[in-house]
Design goal:
This protein has 132 residues and is of the alpha+beta class. Helix content is 54%, strand content 26%.
Amino acid sequence: MQIIRKTKVKQVITESSKQQLKEHFERQKASQHKELEQLQFEKKKLIYNNKFDQHKVEEKFSKEELKRKQSIEWYEFQIEQLNQLPLGSEITEREVDEVVEVSVGDDWDQIVGPRKMVIKDGKIVQITGDAK
């Protein structure tokens, strides 16, 4: 029988991975800025055309603008944190699903216990918590 379990993927911070993460966060932040500007433009256009109630337009767009602003702040925080991380640190990158073969007599605690993969510059360097 096969089951699916979660496995944490951690990344070792190197000069290269730090730069890649920073570029990723900067791209995401720029994307959110662009979306925010587009929302503000659309809001002004709708208000100018007077086809809809100005208050409702403001209310609807302010919620979406707030989401983008919070996202921008989050990416800025991530960049700050990344700048403070020393090389060699491990960060949790994501969690993936893993298919595991189980059979009668297997040690359940070992199968469902903590499991992680460590990645360094795009290569798996360690896998811990093997079920078999």
